[in-house]
Amino acid sequence: MHLVIISGATRPQPKSNTAKIIAAFQKGFEENGNTTEVWYLSDRKQWDNAKNAFESNEHILIAFPLYAENIPGIMLEFLSGLKPKHNSHTKLAFIIQGGFPEACQSRCCEAYLKMLPAQLGCEYAGTLIKGDMFGLGMVDDKNREKMLAPFVEMGRHFAEKSCFEKYVADAFATPEYMPEKQIRMFNMIGRHISKFFMGSIAKKLGCKGNLYDKPYESSVNNPV
Length: 224
Ligand SMILES: Cc1cc2nc3c(=O)[nH]c(=O)nc-3n(C[C@H](O)[C@H](O)[C@H](O)COP(=O)(O)O)c2cc1C
What we know:
Rossmann fold
């Protein structure tokens, strides 16, 4: 099987978590002689090739980061430029990965993705959801490999089934919600650790102000 993979991430390939996930997925998918081609929407020079690949292939996978609980703007722009296919047997599958750990974050987006293939004249081939991916580019190689191993396995699964089976995708997406005990522990201890790490990351990225600033708070409390 030949699979066209389109990355809907806005960050360029070397910095993108989506790109790392795609590479892991390819590893599992290609094990038995399957082939792939990948197009990155972060590079607008690749859009024509991505569009042509969508038009002329029957197995398409779109992988992207969750942005404000839905698809990134550039991906929406790209999708709006595609012409619906006629009489095609194209199967369209998706991978959503996000920063927050709970899969419930991605369910609204998933509902949109379930409707999308029909609008493009394609069949829906399932959605893989994975949270807690924010740090993928920051951890060491060993931990990154550990985080990516499930995607290698999903590449194998997709090669076998040509889709993401719902029960497999549901198991893969866990946790749907964080257990209450874990939330309580986070509020007591975890959030202070997280605040410290987020602060140092922000500083490295050039942030000079307080991450918890609310510059518009006074206008909310005292509307004109
Ligand atoms: C503008 C913006 C919005 C985001 N919105 C969400 C969100 O709603 N839920 C979530 O879980 N993660 C959210 N994230 C985190 C990204 O999905 C996450 O860090 C992802 O791994 C980034 O992938 P990339 O490196 O391929 O862009 C957001 C990140 C950005 C920059």
